[in-house]
Amino acid sequence: MVTLTRAQMKRLTAVHGWSGTILGLLLYAVIVTGTVVVLGDEIGAWSAGGIRTDQPIVPGIDTRVRPIIEAAPAEHRTDITVFANARGELLVFPHADIQHPDSGEPEPYGTLFRLDPVTGGTLSRHEGFVFREPAWHEASALQDFLVDLHVQLHVPPPWGLILTGVLGLLMVAMGVTGLLMHRHLVRDLFVPVRPGRRLVSARDRHVLAGSWALLFAFVLGFTGAYFSFAGTVVFPLLTEVAFGGDEVAAAEALFEPPVVTDARPAPLAGLDRVVADAAARAGSPVDTLSIERYGRADARIRTFHRPPPDGMDFVRTVYDGVSGGFLELRPVIGNQPSGGALLMGLMWPLHTGSFAGAPSKSIWVGLGSMMAFVVVSGMRLWLRRRDAQPLWQGFGRAVTIVGYGLPVAMLTAAHACFLAGAVDADAFRWTPAGFAVGVIPGVLPGLLHRDEDGARRLYRGLLGAGVVLLPPCRMVTGGIGWGTALYDGQGTVLSIDLALLVLGAALIGWAMRPETMPRPRSVAAE
Amino acid sequence: MRRLMTTTHRRIAAAVNARPAAIRWILAGPGAITAALLFTTAMPLWFPAGAAGVNHIAYPLVLAPLAWAAAFIHACLVENLVRGLAFSALVHGVCGALIVIALSGSLRW
């Protein structure tokens, strides 16, 4: 490993400890929500309920989409986007980019049609700046809430993204300083944890978990900072020097397929053949379909696909909008494969662990949980060395409150989401409200219980009860039962329910387990 | 001339070494952020675009967090603060000059 001088080691220890102490609680929030959001799609499917199909964009959509496009006002036919929500409903959105009065920026405006994917019947239609109203185009308020909490901590854009980007950089710094501080990294991967609740035992646990999570912390922090800063800070700066500040021109040059303008009227190609061909070429079903310059001879049909079983990156295809002929497979950036496109394409699968389905997602959830433990155990280690001072004692209590209170509040948000759905209230409003209400049971045990061990046991009991009650709450409030889920092949619903029951039972068992070892005072020699 | 440079260098070194903690804070804090931003902003001006014509945008877009991490860790580890400050000033100066020239229209991709 890198050999550091005594002064360098002292500085790195100070950086590692103080940055973790000052921003550790926010970092913990981002890591915990991120660990849950790794399963965002699954949580969406589980909480939305009543999924009819998980692949609504298949051959046969032409007869459903075309009448909507032809009936739309001519000014809204500039672009048509066809996608699906977490319930598997088909969403058709003919629109044009119009300047929003609040932001002053061009935003998609049009009428969004929500269709039953089986019958094709219209379930709802809304006109406006659609992507400002999540209830119109999303089916799971819980997924929407958790993703937003992770991505920007519910701080208004762009400041929320910048805040989480700073936390991503902090994670990179923690990972690199942790790596440099390790004198024996390989040995630390297998360090035997000394039993008991002494300072050395806490340090052993932090070192053991931290050693395994080092690379993961670096990758997650790096990719997270990329997602936070790329659009908000770095891309605008790059377009200043490379495109004279014209972000629209930059986006067209980098992300749009080249087209020879031809405004002559021409009918749209059959969508069914395009969808079938695109799915065969990509190796995965069409996730989103967009039609550009509808009704013109230079129309293009683009499809977006999740990574195929043997790939890591999303697949993007382009078809001629009139003949329906295949034109190209596009990389994420540019018009042909490149090192930069490969690098950018890797960012999403590396951040979300979505590159190998359930196994890779499970590993990401496990390592994310380990990261959360590393952050909390690191803060506790820092505090154990200072626990004689009242200020640090108070901070130690704050660590316990946030450590347990955040998951408690997330659980109440989930319960609120289901209960709101049951009484036809706006779940997109009541889910964040449930989180706010959940702050009370999240904070009170830590404030009222004078004995910290007792507070932790109470928290574990609360969490266990909340987790165990989620599946019955989902079913009682209108969610599908296990029999229906099995019959419809919705394994996700059953898997998440069972996982929650096991997790909840484990938490309750942990809460009821008696303390076996007395807590010693820290010893200076340790 | 050489004597003047030596005297100036000694004065700067004395000023830096008189406040090592403050200088390191500046280098690792605002210094690392501005160095990373200037470095990535200037990258399209010298980094090869490649056959696809996008590498000079894609690489700085992705590498920006690593540029900050490199500047930050360097500021934390560098033993000779005068040398560290000089290196940071060089990055700021060269990248800043490239950006100013590009924005003035003399150098445009």
TrEMBL record, chain A:
Coiled coil: none annotated. It comes from the Bacteria. It holds the Pfam family PepSY_TM. Keywords: Membrane, Transmembrane, Transmembrane helix. The chain crosses the membrane at residues 21-40, 159-180, 207-229, 363-383, 395-421, 427-449, 461-487, 493-512. This is PepSY domain-containing protein. It comes from Azospirillum oleiclasticum.
